[in-house]
Every structure is written in structure tokens, then in C-alpha cells.
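[Discussion] Sanity-checking designs against the backbone

I'm trying to build intuition for which residues belong where. Below is a C-alpha cell string of 455 positions. I'd appreciate it if someone posts a full sequence so I can compare it with mine line by line.
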């Protein structure tokens, strides 16, 4: 009987440039908490504090791109989160900093956009979307940004419009000889401020990770409201799991309304009074005006689970947003139904584990005829891939309560990665693209894909 192969080798990222990120040392990919990674369909981005490296793993001879963001040395600013953003044929890289700035770069390393979200460390960048179908009444594409106790949301259409405008201007300027010697950062999109919503979600304790699971119904007394409400799930040290209802309206928050009026007035009064006492020297260099932060919208707590000394560590959301896999400090993995807000499954003995959702081809009955050659969405079943580094294995479990489908041995120092959500993909005319999972071997640099079929 032939041995089943569950991994398909696709490419390699080994190159000299990786030494600047610590490559060559044992466990360099997984042991360094400051080393960040984000996977695209053919490229991988690796970041370490002040440097971002883009490597095309499908073409080892392609040019590597190094990006060194202009960070503040006074604030000891560094890169704390990265993620790919894909709109059909347009690919850009998102980066978050320790000072709360969102940076958008082209694959050539050009800075497209820079915006202050909130003066705090950006922990996570999430790109996701849901399509309108029989299960989803509305469609939504968004970029959510997680900070300690805070979550922000950018609408995908606003960022797409900004990117289209930037690329149009760049292509037109390419043929304009007068603009060749201009400032590369003198573009309208760089200084354009994108609209977004931001919420304070630290009522049950500061969160270490969070996600917006989707649109939820309004409260009972607000059925006639035209605004949208979102559900957010957070994890942290004080509360393992917390859930919030997020409102788009900022005016209904009494505390926020008071602070938005009182704080600026008090700050202006103090500043005017200080100028009367300490006259500044006219010859001193003028500082750039600080970017204004946005006031919080209303966030209402729905539920929380506190179980000291258990602490939430990592959070992974399913494509539809109805399930979330949460790892904790006790080596357990909790499967949360984000609509009912109940834990529906529990795994034990998985310390330092990481989880990603994937789709695998379901087994067909032998007597059942198949009329299509290309698999469609209904042929796939949702699964959870669990990487247990202490055991050196990857397990794939069928959702929600299905069995373990397979176990894969993996090398020490490997990392599970998943390509970012592609905006505008999976149209009715194009073949269905299932949710795939890749494995990066840090020692060899080999990139492999978990096979979608069990056979």
C-alpha cells in the first residue's frame, strides 16, 4: 500500500537577505516574538522591528524587496503587525507600528498611505470579508486593527478607492517627465485620511487579540435604527473570552460625548495658560502638528468568561465568522460559536499550539455520480488545522464535532501560514478557491501546502 502524502512542496524562500532577520539560527522563525510573517498566493512578507522583506517563494530568482519604514527614533517606534491586502490584481502590504500608525506599501516598497489609528501599539491586522448568500443576508469586507483594549474597523471599499486613485496617479506620472524628479511621497493618498470606526473593548480587561465576527441584530428597543451593529470577540488575561456589540453611532455614548467636549476644552485652557507663564523662544524649531485621534463609538458588553489563572493567547476566526478557535495558557483549545456565544468543543494538551481554519474535500459516496469536474464549494467541508509544536505534528479536525481526519509530522521550527483574504474573489463565473493552509519550514525555507484531499 502506497504511503499517503499530505504535503505538496511549492517553493523555497532561502536567500542571503534572510540573515538580517535572524535566519541561520535554530528556531529563528518561531522563537523570536518580534519576527512577523504574512503569506500571499506567491509571496511572503517577513518583518523584524525596522525591516520588512518580501520574498517570492514561487520564483527564487525574482528580486527581493526591502522596506525600511520611516519610524520615530524618539518613540522607539517599530513594526508590530503586517498583513497582505489583495484587491483582484492589486496587492499591497499593510504594516502596523508600536505608535499606532497604519502604513500601506506597494509590492515595490512605495509608501502609499500613512494614518494614525490610535496612539497605542498595534497588535494585529485582520483582513476578512463575507459574501451575500443563503446564509449571509449582507456582504461585508473590512480591515480590523487590534490594539490593547481597542478595536478599529476600516471599510474595504474606502481603501480600495484610495488604492485605485494612487495607482492611477502613479501610472499617469510615469509618463510625465516633469514628475520624475518630484518627491516620491508627495501624493494625495499619503495625506488623505480614511474614515473608520473605533471602539473601546476593555470593560472586562485589556485584550491581547480581538476580531469582528460580523454584523449582528440591533438591540430589542432599536429595531428601527438604520445603523449597523457588529459583534466583536476579544481574548485576554483577565477574561479568557469577551463579546461586545459595536455600534456605528458615536453620539449616543454619554461618556464619549462628555469627554469629546470637556477634554479638548481643558487641554486648550491648560495650553493657553502655560504659554502665558513660559514664553517659548521664537527661534526654536516648530514641531509638526500631531495627528488627531478619533473618539470612541459605543461598545456594549454581551458576555465574558473569567477563569483564573487561564488566559487567552491566540484567536482564529472561520471564513463565515460563525466559529472562533481560541488557545489559552493551560494548553486548551476552545471552539466558540460566535452567534450563540457558547463553547461547543474543547481540546486539551496543546500547549503553544496555533490554529487555522481550512477546507478539505469531503468523501463522496461511491454510488453517487459526480456531474462536475471542478470541485465546487459544497464539495468542501470546514476543518481546523492544529499545529502542536511540542508534539511535532499537525492535526486536522472536521468541524464542528467531526473526527480527526489526519495527522501530519512536521519539522521543528515550522510555522502554519494562510494567505490573506482576497477582496472580490470567488465570483459566480470563476472557480471556487478553497481555504488553504501552508507550512513554512524555518530551517530549510521550504514552503509546502496541505493537500485538500484525504486520498
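Best answer:
Here's mine. Compare freely.
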Amino acid at each position: 500500500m502506497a504511503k499517503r502524502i499530505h504535503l505538496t512542496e511549492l517553493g523555497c524562500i532561502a536567500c542571503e537577505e534572510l540573515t538580517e532577520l535572524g535566519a541561520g539560527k535554530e528556531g529563528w522563525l518561531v522563537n523570536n516574538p518580534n519576527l512577523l510573517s504574512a503569506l500571499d498566493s506567491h509571496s511572503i512578507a517577513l518583518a523584524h522591528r525596522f525591516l520588512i522583506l518580501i520574498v517570492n517563494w514561487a520564483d527564487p530568482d525574482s528580486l527581493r524587496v526591502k522596506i525600511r519604514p520611516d519610524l520615530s527614533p524618539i518613540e522607539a517606534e517599530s513594526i508590530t503587525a503586517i498583513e497582505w491586502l489583495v484587491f483582484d490584481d492589486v496587492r499591497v502590504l499593510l504594516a502596523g507600528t508600536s505608535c499606532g500608525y497604519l502604513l500601506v506599501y506597494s509590492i515595490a516598497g512605495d509608501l502609499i498611505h500613512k494614518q494614525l489609528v490610535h496612539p497605542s501599539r498595534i497588535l494585529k491586522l485582520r483582513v476578512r470579508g463575507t459574501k451575500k448568500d443563503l446564509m449571509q443576508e449582507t456582504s461585508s469586507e473590512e480591515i480590523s486593527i487590534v490594539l490593547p483594549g481597542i478595536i478599529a474597523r476600516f471599510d474595504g471599499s474606502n481603501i480600495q478607492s484610495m488604492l485605485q486613485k494612487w495607482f492611477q496617479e502613479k501610472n499617469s506620472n510615469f509618463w510625465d517627465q516633469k514628475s520624475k524628479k518630484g518627491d516620491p511621497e508627495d501624493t494625495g493618498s499619503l495625506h488623505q485620511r480614511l474614515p473608520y470606526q473605533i471602539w473601546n473593548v476593555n470593560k472586562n480587561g485589556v485584550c491581547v487579540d480581538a476580531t469582528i465576527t460580523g454584523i449582528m441584530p440591533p438591540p430589542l428597543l432599536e429595531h428601527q435604527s438604520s445603523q449597523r451593529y457588529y459583534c466583536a470577540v476579544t481574548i485576554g488575561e483577565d477574561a479568557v473570552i469577551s463579546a461586545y456589540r459595536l455600534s456605528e453611532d458615536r453620539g449616543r455614548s454619554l461618556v464619549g460625548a462628555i469627554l469629546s467636549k470637556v477634554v479638548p476644552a481643558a487641554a486648550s485652557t491648560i495650553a493657553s495658560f502655560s504659554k502665558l507663564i513660559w514664553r517659548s523662544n521664537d527661534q526654536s524649531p516648530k514641531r509638526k502638528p500631531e495627528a488627531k485621534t478619533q473618539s470612541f463609538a459605543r461598545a456594549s458588553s454581551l458576555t465574558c468568561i473569567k477563569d483564573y489563572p487561564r488566559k487567552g493567547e491566540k484567536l482564529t476566526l472561520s471564513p463565515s465568522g460563525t466559529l472562533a478557535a481560541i488557545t489559552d495558557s493551560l494548553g486548551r483549545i476552545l471552539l466558540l460559536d460566535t452567534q450563540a456565544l457558547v463553547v461547543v468543543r474543547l481540546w486539551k494538551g496543546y500547549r503553544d499550539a496555533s490554529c487555522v481554519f481550512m477546507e478539505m474535500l469531503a468523501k463522496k459516496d461511491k454510488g453517487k455520480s459526480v456531474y462536475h469536474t471542478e470541485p465546487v464549494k459544497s464539495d468542501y467541508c470546514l476543518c481546523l488545522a492544529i499545529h502542536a509544536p511540542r508534539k511535532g505534528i499537525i492535526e486536522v479536525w472536521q468541524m464542528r464535532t467531526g473526527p480527526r481526519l489526519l495527522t501530519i509530522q512536521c519539522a521543528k521550527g515550522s510555522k502554519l501560514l494562510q494567505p490573506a483574504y482576497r477582496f472580490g474573489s470567488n465570483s459566480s463565473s470563476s472557480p471556487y478557491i478553497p481555504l488553504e493552509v501552508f507550512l513554512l519550514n524555518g530551517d530549510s525555507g521550504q514552503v509546502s501546502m496541505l493537500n485538500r484531499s484525504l486520498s
